[in-house]
Amino acid sequence: MPELPRTEVHNERVVYDGQPWLRVTRHEITTPDGARRSHHAIRLNPVASTVVVDDQGRALLMRRHRWIVDQVGYETPGGIIDPGEDPQTCARRELLEETGFEVGAFHLAAILEPMPGLVETPHYVYIADEPRQVAEPTDEEEAAQLVWMPLTDTPELLATGQLLGAGTAVGMLSALALHTRCLHLPHPAQQPVVPGHQTP
C-alpha cells in the first residue's frame, strides 16, 4: 500500500496537568494538506477491562451510575493501569477489587483508542472464563450492582445506550462473536449476582 501522508508535530506544551488522571497538551502541527495550526490533545492513563463469561453464555457486568454523563448503565470491570503494571495484571486486580471474582484463562480481545482524534487513552480489553467468586468486592468507590447479562442481549443494550464506555461495548461484541462461533448460545434470563455465592 502507498505510504499515507502524516501530520507533522512541531512542539508540545502542557496547558493543564491533572495527574494522575489527565493532562491537556497544546501542539503546533502541520496537517497533510500543508496547513499549520494549533491543536489540543487530552492524555489519559491506559486502562484494562475484562468481559467475564460463564458457561451459560452470560457476562458479569456492573450496573452503575456515571455522574459525568448522568447515565445508569452497564460496564465491564476494569480500571487504570498502574505505572509499570502489566495490563493483564491490572485486569485481574480490578476484577477482584470490583466484583470479588477470579477467573481462568485471559484472552486479549482488543487494544483500542476510543477517540484518537482528540484523546490518547489505550484500552486493553480481555475476555476470561471459568469465573469463581472468592470474596466480596472491596472497592467501595466503584459501588455497583453485579449482574449476569446474556451475551445475546448485547445488540439491544448497545442500541438503547445501556453499555457505558467503548471498552465495554467492544468487549461485549467480541465476546458475543467469539462464543457464537464456538457454540450455540442459550438464551438465559438476566440474573443479579448474590454476594458470597458461586455462579449458578
UniProtKB/TrEMBL annotation:
Signal sequence coordinates: none
One Gene Ontology MF term: hydrolase activity
Pfam families on file: NUDIX
Cofactor(s) for this UniProt protein: Mg(2+)
Nudix hydrolase domain mapped to chain residues: 43-171
Keyword line: Hydrolase
Gene3D superfamilies per UniProt: Nucleoside Triphosphate Pyrophosphohydrolase
Similarity comment: family membership: Belongs to the Nudix hydrolase family.
UniProt cross-references to PANTHER family, sorted A to Z: 8-OXO-DGTP DIPHOSPHATASE-RELATED (PTHR43046:SF2), GDP-MANNOSE MANNOSYL HYDROLASE (PTHR43046)
Name this protein carries in UniProt: NUDIX domain-containing protein
Lineage of producing organism: Bacteria, Bacillati, Actinomycetota, Actinomycetes, Mycobacteriales
